[in-house]
Amino acid sequence: MIKEFRIRTTKSREVVDITNRVSECIKGVKEGICMVYVPHATAGLIINEFEPNIASDFVAFFEKLVPKAGWKHNVIDDNAEAHLKSGLVGPHALMPVSEGRLVLGTWQRIILCDFDGPRDRRVVVMVR
Amino acid sequence: MIKEFRIRTTKSREVVDITNRVSECIKGVKEGICMVYVPHATAGLIINEFEPNIASDFVAFFEKLVPKAGWKHNVIDDNAEAHLKSGLVGPHALMPVSEGRLVLGTWQRIILCDFDGPRDRRVVVMVR
Amino acid sequence: MIKEFRIRTTKSREVVDITNRVSECIKGVKEGICMVYVPHATAGLIINEFEPNIASDFVAFFEKLVPKAGWKHNVIDDNAEAHLKSGLVGPHALMPVSEGRLVLGTWQRIILCDFDGPRDRRVVVMVR
Predict the structure, then answer these.
(1) In CATH, which of 1.10.3720.10, 3.30.465.10, 2.60.120.460, 3.90.79.10 is domain C2-127?
(2) Which of A36, B3, B107, C58 could anchor a disulfide with B25, C-beta 3.0 to 4.6 Å?
(3) Is residue A30 less than 8 Å (CB to CB) from chain B?
(4) pTM for the full model?
């Protein structure tokens, strides 16, 4: 099974809880490995808690982790920092599907990280 | 195939080699993608060497990477740092199963990272 | 399907675009989850843009992220830094295969990171 949906981000750096959208995609699937995937080089996916404070902390954390200036790619396009974050975080998040549901812990949500928004972002969901 | 086991961690920050437990789970499986998964938002999984020195280095490295203080989530629950580490590391580790065995290099072990222990941690193993 | 190829790196720290090699491996596969995997504890895989400037930025970024000195593992083998980078980045990169092709965005390439070269590196490709 492969499905796709789109998310419109609204800020230059934003984290968006996409768990419900992924859950809709896997309806009718009983068991398998679910891969959520963004075909983008300045976005990424993480799995973690999502409430406004920790969401804001994740954005701040990635800002601290990757300095804005001093990158060679910035002479081509001024978004090296977004590529470095995306490379580190990765474009995929995986979890089991069991008994027709995503296996997620109490505090786990699937979170799209846009490091270079606002943009339209594609999210691909595949279960095998 | 989906199986589950539990690990009791004993420290606030701890890395545990769970390779043998995962190997037991995949007995009888000939070939596939093996996903090891922890349904937790303050733990994670890595694949790397495991001996006491590098184990201790990994704990120290994550401490350096994520400052303890200054996070908004800490007004709710004083473990933002553990969430940020978990989000970065991720709750899954994957490797091939081939000829009935996990495909791991000489120095690769599957390592559970508890960033907010001691706790009982669930580990889910799925092969497809 | 499981296949393997080798890459000879030429520098102590190097990033190599292996997308075309992976594409060759998946010929004849129509749909599935593709896992690219390196059975090594001082290398890793990322998915991101690949042009000379950002390639050099990734090498510099990992150097900044992980200090060279101060690790206990260095009394055994002077490459703790390479293990820490490899543990953080991870040995796997995944993407969908759909209609016989790797689902990669315009700027996404599959990149092998050697943190302790030059070496011969094995790359395993499995689709399920």
Answers:
(1) 2.60.120.460
(2) B3
(3) no
(4) 0.98
